[in-house]
Design brief:
Blueprint: H1 4-15, H2 20-32, H3 36-49, H4 55-66, H5 70-86, H6 90-104
Length: 105
Amino acid sequence: MSNPRIEQLKVLIDKDPNNPLGRYGLANELFKSELFEDAIIEINEYLKLKDDEGAVYRMLAECYVKTGNIEEAKQTYQKGVEAANRHGHPSMAEEFEEALEFLDE
């Protein structure tokens, strides 16, 4: 069964591939639909366009965990810590540091 929201966002991105909001929206819908490999691709495209404040790194790291790529998840959480700190979100940075500790166990 196809997801109409995903299809709408794909059309939007086809019209404007450099639309970070469209890329983020598509990545989020793919994530919610558990299409983690596709979500990874879209999140990485989004990150080429936008300096995210940190939240997207959570989604990307979770995608890597769900696909069994723990090392990529760790690297992504570390990038999330850096982004969150850069944008003044210490509680988000702390959350990502805790996730890193959990993955190291």
